[in-house]
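Side project, low priority. Logging it here so it doesn't get lost.
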Amino acid sequence: MREADVIYFVLTVREPHSTMISDEKRAFKRAGHKFTLKYRSGTPNGTAAGLAVTENLSMGGTFFVSMDMMEIGHEVDIVILMPDGHESKWMGRVVRCEEYGHGMVKTYGVAVEFTRAVSDAERRLRDALKA
């Protein structure tokens, strides 16, 4: 491999904390602010459950940081706490889980694609994303 190839490779590898390119095409608009959520999913070591803050959120899914590693393809229950105090409940599946951050505690970035809204979750989330 030539030196120029190595430099190109290093510059094109995306770190988990990097910002997204502004002209990127997305199926759903992302929220401009963060939301607290509760999650519950099966893992290789039992059940993962906890609280997290969204790194990004859209009508299609969410990305959050967890102390639990989750298996790609596993179902996950998500409850998003809305600014008005209500909850938006979703079923989803893990589409990505990768080590995240460089701290002393191992954390994972978890991307979840929503597969089903429970009750009026879709309306609540749509309203919150407009705000």
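Brief comment: Residues 1-24 have pLDDT under 50 and may be disordered.
Revisit when time allows.
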